[in-house]
Design a protein that fits this description.
Pfam families: RRM_1 (PF00076)
Radius of gyration: 14 Å
GO molecular function: RNA binding
InterPro entries: Nucleotide-bd_a/b_plait_sf (IPR012677), RBD_domain_sf (IPR035979), RRM2_NsCP33-like (IPR048289), RRM_dom (IPR000504), SLIRP/GR-RBP-like (IPR052462)
Structural class: alpha+beta
Largest sheet: 4 strands, antiparallel
Keywords: RNA-binding
Helix content: 25-40%
Protein name: 4508_t:CDS:1
Strand content: 25-35%
Shape: globular
Order of helices and strands: EHEEHEEEH
Distance between the termini: 29 Å
Length: 91
């Protein structure tokens, strides 16, 4: 099952290819995308990386948190879609 990571703290100059290349050190990256402003096309400073397995995603979180990419300290965490949060029942 595919596992998506949120990656924050990206440099404005980091592109999809650089993000994917860095995260491939920890496993098979299915997708890597830097989120861009739809009006200006500039990076918004965060992105998402999708791995094939939970083990690869966990290895990336452990290996890359608080490390540098393009001169900025990055932070990764498991991505939980808003739709999943809204469906959680709290008693």
């Amino acid at each position: 099952m595919a596992v998506k990571l949120f990656v924050g703290g990206l440099s404005w100059g980091t592109d999809d290819r650089t993000l994917k290349s860095k995260f491939e050190e920890f496993g098979n990256v299915e997708d890597a995308v830097v989120i861009r402003d739809r009006d200006t096309g500039r990076s918004r400073g965060f992105g998402f990386v999708t791995y094939s397995s939970n083990e690869e995603a966990e290895a990336a979180i452990q290996g890359l948190n608080d490390n540098e990419l393009d001169g900025r300290t990055i932070k990764g965490e498991l991505h939980i879609p808003t739709s999943s949060i809204n469906s959680i029942a709290i008693y």
